[in-house]
Amino acid sequence: MEFPDQPSQSPSPVPEPDNSCPDSPELPLTMTASAILSDLPKDASTALASAGSFAPDEKVLIRFKAVGSAPALSQDVCKITAARRFEEVVRYLRRKLRCKDTDSVFLYVNSAFAPSLDEVVGNLHKCFKNGNDQLIVAYSMTPAFG
């Protein structure tokens, strides 16, 4: 079928593949896929080696802040081993508040997000500590902060 407003063109011939380089890969590679690192830079290797590892006796400071109608603690700062999981912080707070098994307690880091229970406290401290080297944990008896 021909269109009157377009001139008829004969298809251009398909170029033949260049076989002069037999060692080239069959599929073309992108620049990012073709660059393979044999090893990481020293600073990246050091950072990855030390990530998530804490000395057995390393402790971090946690400051608890009551939100809304939650009862205030008489001692709002505690030390916990950095390698512990966040569920230990929840257990400690529930014990200090004398919560029943049916009571709910909601914890938020920096009044912004609720970390998962299996998050390592030392990692949270490294990322979200304040200027006084304390991890701020806000707590409430009802959901807060979104």
Automatic annotation (TrEMBL):
GO terms for cellular component: Atg12-Atg5-Atg16 complex; autophagosome membrane; phagophore assembly site membrane. One of its GO terms (molecular function) is Atg8-family ligase activity. It is a peripheral membrane protein. Pfam families: APG12. Residues 1-27 are annotated as: Disordered. InterPro entries: Atg12, Ubiquitin-like_domsf. SUPFAM superfamilies: Ubiquitin-like (SSF54236). GO terms for biological process: autophagosome assembly; autophagosome maturation; autophagy of mitochondrion; glycophagy; piecemeal microautophagy of the nucleus; protein transport. The keyword Protein transport applies. It comes from the Eukaryota. Keywords: Autophagy, Isopeptide bond, Membrane, Protein transport, Transport, Ubl conjugation pathway. It is found in: Preautophagosomal structure membrane. CDD domains: Ubl_ATG12. Ubiquitin-like protein involved in cytoplasm to vacuole transport (Cvt), autophagy vesicles formation, mitophagy, and nucleophagy. Belongs to the ATG12 family. Forms a conjugate with ATG5. This is Ubiquitin-like protein ATG12. It comes from Sarocladium strictum.
